[in-house]
Design brief:
By secondary structure, the chain is α/β, with parallel strands linked by helices. Helices cover 35% and strands 22% of the residues. The N terminus is likely disordered. Bound molecules: zinc ion (ZN).
């Protein structure tokens, strides 16, 4: 069987082994010049160690980062001096609370002072899409890049994925058109990894047919997707009775996996649906393991806090996500408030671990991603998940699709596509319930035939427009 054949089985597995053991390490070392394979080996071993050992490593990496930031990065040098903060005295994760939160506004205003002048020229420069909020530019050093890759590969492997196995990406493709020498490397990467990218922005019938054909031809070992778009694709498959494949693990990114989405994804692709949580600024922060009970944090690369104001929130309470990027020396992000809300899982009883056996702490769940959190008149958060919980009914499809938009001046518009079991009476009851959560914000409903994904390819259910 040649390596170009995509059917799973002996050929695919043989290729996967050859790829993982020989091709990929050589590629990363010789062409990409990245130590990703070494990092991956380290991460694969670390995840099974005890929470104490993992914490010790994390604190060691944290002290090194803080020391570097205090010596080389103007913003942090100034902050540490003002607070008389000594990185060498950091003994616990809680010691970080002595430092202020790094907000997106500070990143914008103090950009130049946040970049290490020595790394500056070599840094990878990126930005978040401005599709719903205000765009944010940031950068990170090359060594952070290989940690990011290794962390992602490890988390994906919890679904059975291995580099070299065929992967079907159902993903937003804007900003995905690499050019020049970099483009050639990316294309070669994709061919050798046997990745197929299908643009999930296009959700018309012809695009879905073509995606379905590719999926059937390819028989991937995993699907990596934008959650909402893939859930819509799954509904379309189920409505037409088109499933003719065995179970395929589905790795959901970019958007939360809500119970109704999980249900249709499981029906269309099998029970192995994994939520992942990441952002462009720090990449994969947490991912679900095979126990499907919360998301393990990428603790060797990131220190994640969940906080109210800037103090740790008790486990099980929703708070702001603060993230410290342990290997980004080029533009140190320390206690960066990324705008998401999450809950930390309660610490397990002594000696207990996740059923999978890993020692990495977990997020119980991600409540709202940046653009998914509305604010009431007093500025208190209203997690967008409220809409999902109230509008989703597992048994009856009253609503086919919805999108809630909070305008900059505060009013909320709910766009609704009626479903096959539509009933005005039941919908009105839901709306009354919703109004309770919106605490007096002006609110109106608009009925529409369909809702298009945004320019970035996310089929956003919650949009918070910013001033
Ligand atoms: Zn686990």
């Amino acid at each position: 069987m040649s390596i170009s054949e995509n059917a799973p089985g002996l050929g695919a597995r043989t290729y996967e082994r050859a790829y993982r053991r020989v091709l990929w390490p050589a590629w990363e070392r010789l062409v990409r010049r990245r130590p990703t394979p070494q990092h991956l080996r380290f991460l694969e071993a670390m995840q099974w160690r005890s929470p104490d050992v993992i914490e010790r490593y994390q604190l060691h990496a944290l002290r090194a980062l803080l020391t570097h930031a205090g010596e080389h990065v103007p913003y942090w040098r100034e902050t540490f001096r003002r607070l008389a903060f000594d990185p060498r005295e950091v003994r616990t994760r809680e010691d970080l609370a002595a430092l202020p939160v790094l907000t997106r506004d500070i990143v914008r205003e103090r950009y130049v002072d946040l970049v290490d002048p020595v790394h500056g020229r070599l840094n990878v420069k990126k930005g978040t899409s401005g599709s719903t909020g205000v765009p944010l530019k940031f950068e990170y050093c090359l060594s952070s890049e290989s940690w990011r890759q290794a962390v992602r590969i490890r988390a994906y492997s919890w679904s059975g994925y291995r580099p070299g196995l065929p992967v079907f990406y159902y993903w937003g493709l804007i900003n995905e058109r690499p050019t020049g020498a970099q483009g050639v490397k990316v294309v070669l990467d994709r061919v050798s990894k046997r990745e197929v990218f299908v643009n999930s922005i296009r959700q018309d019938d012809a695009a879905r047919r073509s995606a379905l054909d590719q999926l059937r031809r390819m028989r991937p070992a995993a699907i990596v997707c934008f959650t909402q778009s893939c859930a819509q694709f799954a509904r379309w498959i189920l409505d037409r009775g088109l499933r003719d494949w065995d179970d395929i693990p589905v790795l959901c990114g970019a958007e939360a996996v809500l119970p109704a989405d999980r249900a249709v994804l499981c029906q269309a692709f099998g029970p192995n649906v994994f939520e992942t949580y990441g952002s462009r600024e720090t990449m994969l922060m947490a991912a679900e393991c095979e126990a499907h009970a919360g998301l393990h944090l990428s603790e060797e690369n990131l220190l994640v806090e969940v906080a109210h104001a800037d103090k740790a929130a008790p486990a099980g309470d929703t708070g702001d996500v603060l993230v410290t990027d342990l290997h980004n020396y080029g533009m140190p992000f320390i206690r960066y408030q990324n705008g998401d809300l999450a809950r930390m899982a309660p610490p397990p009883a002594a000696g207990d671990r996740c059923a999978c056996g890993r020692g990495l702490r977990k997020l119980e769940r991600v409540e709202g991603r940046r653009a998914d959190t509305l604010r009431d008149r007093e500025g208190n958060p209203i997690p967008g998940i409220v809409f999902h919980v109230l509008l989703a009914d597992g048994r009856q499809e009253i609503i086919r699709q919805f999108q809630a938009v909070q305008r900059a001046r505060g009013d909320v518009v709910l766009r609704v596509v009626r479903g096959p079991h539509w009933s005005q009476e039941r919908f009105d009851a839901v709306v009354r319930n919703l109004e309770g959560y919106l605490r007096g914000l002006p609110f109106q409903v608009e009925y529409t035939g369909s809702i298009a994904p945004s320019a970035s390819g996310k089929l956003r259910t919650i949009i918070v427009e910013q001033t």
